[in-house]
Amino acid sequence: DCDVLEAFGQGESLLRDPGCAEELEDRLRFYAEECDFLQGFQVLCDLHSGFSGVGAKATELLHDEYSGKGILSWGLAPGRSDAARLESPPLPQDCQKNLYRVMNTALGIVRLSAHSSLLCPLSLSGSLGVR
C-alpha cells in the first residue's frame, strides 16, 4: 500500500529510464521474432493508477517499432465500490486519490487512443469507477 505508481507521470517516467525501456524492447522483440505471422498486439492497461502511464508509453513504443501492426488497447477500470463506503462522506485522502484516478483515467484514455488502432475502456461501473 505504498502507492509507488499513484500518478500517470510516475508510470510514464518508469519507461523513460533507458534500462527499463531497453529491457521491454528486448522482450518484445524476442516474442515478435517467435511469431510466424505477427498481426498485432493487445494491451491490457489499468487506467486508474500510474500503470496507465506505463501502458501509454509501452503503446507508444509498439506504435513506433511496429508501425504496420494493429494495436488493440483495453483500458481497465474497477467496478463500483461497496455501498457503505459510497454513503459515508469522503475523507480528504479519498478526495486526493479520486482526483488522481480521474487524472490517470483521462490521461490514459487520451494517450492510449493516440497510439492505438482501437481503445476500448472496460468497467463494470458506468462511470469508469470514478465517483
TrEMBL record:
Listed A to Z, the keywords are: Cytoplasm
BP GO terms, sorted: mitochondrion organization
Gene3D superfamilies, per database record: Tubulin/FtsZ, GTPase domain (3.40.50.1440)
The organism's taxonomy opens as: Eukaryota, Metazoa, Chordata, Craniata, Vertebrata
Main location, first listed in the record:
cytoplasm
Specify the protein name.
MSTO1 protein
What organism does this protein naturally occur in? Rhinopomastus cyanomelas (Common scimitarbill)
**The encoding gene:** Msto1_2
Key word Cytoplasm present = yes
Which InterPro entries does the record match to this protein?
Answer: DML1/Misato (IPR049942), DML1/Misato_tubulin (IPR029209), Tubulin/FtsZ_GTPase_sf (IPR036525)
- Compartments where found: Cytoplasm
Name a single GO cellular component. mitochondrion
Ranges of residues in domain DML1/Misato tubulin: 6-123
